[in-house]
Every structure is written in C-alpha cells, then in structure tokens.
Amino acid sequence: MRISNLTLIPSGKRVRATATVTWEDCDQPTREVFIETEEEFGRDISCNPHAFLVGCIIPAMHFGEKRIHLNAEICPSLREGLQTVMSLMKEWSNGAYKPLSIEAKTHSASAHLHKQRRAGLFLSGGIDSLAALRVNKQNYPEKHPGSIKDCLLVHGFDIGGVKERGMKYQVFDRARAALSAVAKDANVTLIPVYTNIRHLCDERDLWLDKFFGAVLASVGHAFASRLHLAYIASSYDIPNLVPCGSHPLLDPEYSSFDLRIKLMGLSLSRLEKLRLVADWDVAFQNFRVCLANVADRLNCGKCEKCVRTMTELIAIGALDKTHAFVENDVSPELFSGFKITIRHRAPFYQEMLPFLKERGRDDLVRTITRMLQD
C-alpha cells in the first residue's frame, strides 16, 4: 500500500485533509480517503501523516498488503505502537493477519503545534461516551490539562459508515442537535467531523473486532494541532474484556508524542455507566444508543441495543424518566427478533438480572435466562 498526495483543501463550507491510498498486493481500487470538518474548525485540522497511517494499517493487514509506504516523517513512538498493534492483530487472527513493513522516515522533533492544546473525547451520544464525559467533568477541574474541552462527533462511523446504507446526513444532523444541548451543559465544544476511512473495508466483523478504534485515533491525529489528548470511551469493563476494535491493549498504541490516546471507563460496568447518565438530565433526555438510524426518532426501540438499554433502564427504575425512548416498558415479546448472546453481550444481560428480580420483573428474568441458555 502507498499513501500519497497528502493535501489540505477547502471543500465547500468544510476543510478536508485527504490522501490517495493505492493498493499493491490486492485488487482493491485506488481510493481518496479524507477527514474533514467545518470552516469554523478549519485551522485545527491538518494533513498529519499519522492520521492516514493509523487509519489504513488495519485494512492493509486485512487485505494482505506487505508494506505501507508513506513519503512523510512519523513519530518513532507511533511506529513502535503500530508494531504492537500488528502483533496483537496476528494473535487475535490466529496468524491470518501478517505484520507488514512501515516504510516512512522518522522525525526527530514534533511538528509545530499550538501552545494551548486541549483534551478531547469522541462523543457518539451513546451511554459509554456520555458516561465518560460525565466522569471527566466530575473528576477534573476545568483548568486541568486532562479536563475535556472538545467533543468530536464523527460522521462515517456508525452513521454514514456503511456505504450501502447511505450517508444519512439527516440522521447525523439530528444526533448533532441532540448532543449540542449536552455539549452546552458540559461546557465543551462539539466538533463535527466527516470521514470515509471506514469505507476502505466495509466488512462488519473487521469493523467491530479490529478496526473502529483505529478510525477514531486517525481522526484524533488529524486534530493534533488542537488536541494533546484524545479519550475513547471503553466498550467493556475489565472483567469482560475480549478482542475488540477498541481495547486497552490496542488504542493507546495509536498514540504519538504529539497526541496521546487514552481509553476511559474500564472500571465501570454497564449499569454503573447508565446510572451516571440517568443522573445527568440533559444527557438522559438526548442519548442515542441505536444503530438503526431510523428517520423519525433517536432510538428505534426494536433493535437489540435499544431493547437491552430499555431493559437496563427498567432494572435501575429509570425508563419512564427519559424521552430518548418513546416506550415506557419492555415486554418479553420484544426479545423475539434477535439473539442476546451475539458479540459478547451476555455479561450486560447477566448484570441486570438481580435488579430486574428485585423490581418484580420475573417475566423479563425468565426470558433473558432462557435466551442466555440457548
């Protein structure tokens, strides 16, 4: 793979960092990949080669490329981190993913960066990222360098990330409107970002199991002139860690000396995160867990993530207190359309069982217990 033609260009009312990705050892088409933001934040985005290297390395391994050639200088710390990433991918794939050669010069000093850089968080509107923002605001004084000042909302991640589902800009705009209220209450700047890096490989298993943390880190590096630290909210807590596209052995290795990547929330269970969000009313009225991206509401109320979250909210006595769901109750029939053991979801259901029992929801306890045994 060759990454070339790194260019920063205006694109309508946005500013775009772009690069050409040319495959050498497979039949994938040459593609222009980009990360862009709106003019208001145009001075904060750059054609940082780290962004494109991090964004491309997992697809390059997936398609069997033997090298990544980049005619630019990179941080030696990032190079070392990517060696670790590749070793981990080899282990997780039982040897199917082969480490490749990174052909790029090593720079001896950081690029010119703003003196007053900030800490940022990738904010999707889901429970993980909202809980991470809440914990940070509770624990860090505003003037602390680790206090979150920026939240990046990424189009091309869960919204607009799968080509055949369309770009769904209207869904993104709705999510942005909901999170604008959260950002105002938290005293952070919400930065919309648009990228097509996920389109290098649209395979769902690759995305969920190996790739999505790299895309977030890639976007973070594009904003290294503004950010010195980028937080990613953890998908799982420590007792339930599994190979995943975002993982404590993986995400920090995407760091350079210019930008540190840090995973948040590893000590918090799913219900602990939900309680944090439920105690923050602005977030609790505007969260978005659903990946169905339906046209008329934040959360569809029918998919596995929606039904699971609604059931968890029943377990903590909070479903009837949020407008993020139209529904105020969950019936056993809602579980009939999916499996609850997919993608390591069983621990989330097991955690809620004693709390459902305490609230007299034996109907849900029986349904979930039966499905966990199937």
Description of the structure:
The protein is an alpha/beta fold and 374 residues long. The protein has three domains: 2-106, no CATH class; 118-264, 3-Layer(aba) Sandwich (Rossmann fold), CATH 3.40.50; 294-373, no CATH class. 35% of the residues lie in helices and 20% in strands. It is built from ten helices and ten strands. It has a ten-stranded mixed sheet with strand order 5-4-1-2-3-8-7-6-9-10, with helices on both faces. Strand 1 and strand 2 (14-22) form a beta hairpin. Helix 9 (346-358) runs antiparallel to helix 10. It is globular, with a radius of gyration of 21 Å. The termini are far apart. The model has no long low-confidence stretch (mean pLDDT 95).
Largest sheet: 10 strands, mixed
Shape, per Cα inertia axes: globular
Strand share of the residues? Answer: 15-25%
Radius of gyration over all CA atoms, rounded: 21 Å
- Rounded to the nearest angstrom, the distance between the terminal CA atoms is 44 Å
Q: CATH superfamily membership of the largest domain, which one? A: HUPs
Low-pLDDT regions? none
- By CATH, the architecture of the largest domain is named 3-Layer(aba) Sandwich
Number of domains: 3
Secondary-structure content class: alpha/beta
According to CATH, the fold-level topology of the largest domain is: Rossmann fold
Q: Which strand order spans the largest sheet, edge to edge or round the barrel?
A: 5-4-1-2-3-8-7-6-9-10
- Percent range of helical residues: 25-40%
Number of strands: 10
